[in-house]
């Protein structure tokens, strides 16, 4: 079952369009049983050479999770046209779906 849910998470992640973001919780809700923490675990367990847009997944409220890749994530999102407000949050019109 976990392999099936992991595949669902990665399939959904691959569908996030450039310039848009979604949350761990949104992805979890689109699967057959994942939790937001499980979605985060899937991201951490991906091989380093994967091409999935991991950087398009953010915490609820439009903030970046506190992790070692947060600076890279911020830079990649800005390169796609995603903006951050003065509090470091992403406005809701950038959210997918």
Automatic annotation (TrEMBL):
One of its GO terms (biological process) is DNA repair. Pfam families: DNA_binding_1. Transmembrane segments: none annotated. GO terms for molecular function: catalytic activity. InterPro entries: ATL_DNA_repair, MethylDNA_cys_MeTrfase_DNA-bd, MethylDNA_cys_MeTrfase_DNAb, WH-like_DNA-bd_sf. The keyword Cytoplasm does not apply. It comes from the Bacteria. Residues 5-82 form the Methylated-DNA-[protein]-cysteine S-methyltransferase DNA binding domain. Keywords: DNA damage. The keyword ATP-binding does not apply. This is MGMT family protein.
